[in-house]
Amino acid sequence: MHRRQVTTKPVIEPLTLPSLDGTPIEALRPQGDHECLQIDGGSLDELALPGASLRECELLGVTAHTADLQATRLIESRLERFSAPAFRASRVTLRDVEIVGSRIGALDIYEADIRTTRFVGCKLDWVNLRASTLEDVVFEGCTIGELDLTGATATRVCFVGSRADVVAFAHTRLTDVDLRGLEMGQVSNVEGMKGATLDALQVTALAATFAGHLGIRVEG
To answer: So which domain of life are we looking at (predicted)?
Structure first.
């Protein structure tokens, strides 16, 4: 008898931070190693931390016109109520990270390594995850304008109570990616959805898109 497969959920332990030292945002430096710091508030034209390492840190209520975290390492850290119209984070490493209640315009996070990470209650206009690796990642209560997964490799990723107006799946490699909690508008490159889980209503809604991809003409 063929055994029904069940989608494996992400495995993420709750993030528990130690006692943190309150630190002004100006103390953060590019290429610097920062540990056990709490940044509470602060507004900058640019938060520039390329190549930096933040371990067991917490950034609360930080606002920046642009944020540059390219090749930055965030380990066991939390960003809460973070606001930036532009967030450049190519080749960033996220491990055991929570991004909560944040408002980000363009989240440019291509070629990133994202593991055991939760995005909760975030509004993200454009998320560029091209050629990124995601493993054990959750998007919960998030609103996304455009989600670009082109060339991404995703394993045990799920969406809960979230929406994306546009989703691109070109050349993706998906394993246990649960899309049942993602309300999707326009979907492109449906051939890249192999390895994803949908519910019956989603399959019905995407029937015309699937038919077009397969060259099926629907009449009547």
So the answer is: Bacteria
Low-confidence stretches of the chain (pLDDT < 50) are: 1
| Residue 5 region by backbone torsions, left for phi larger than 0, else alpha for psi between -120 and 50, else beta | beta
Contact present, 84 and 64 (Cβ < 8 Å): yes
pTM: 0.92
Q: What is the DSSP letter of 80?
A: E
**Buried-exposed string 122-146: b where 16+ CB fall within 10 A, e elsewhere:** bebbbbbbbbbbbbbbbbbbbbbbb
At residue 14, φ and ψ (nearest 5 deg) are -55, 140
User: How distant, in Å, are the alpha carbons of 13, 73, 103, 170, 212 from that of 107?
Assistant: 25, 16, 10, 19, 31
Taking the CB of residue 107, how many other CB atoms lie within 10 A of it? 24
Residue 209: the pLDDT is 77
CA distance 7 to 168: 21
Residue among 54, 56, 86, 49 at smallest CA distance from 70: 49
pLDDT, one tens digit per residue, over 139-196 is 999 999 999 999 999 999 999 999 999 999 999 999 999 999 999 999 999 889 999 9
Of 127, 131, 115, the C-alpha closest to 171 is: 131
Q: What is the DSSP secondary-structure string of 99-121?
A: EES-EEEEEE-TT-EEEEEEEES
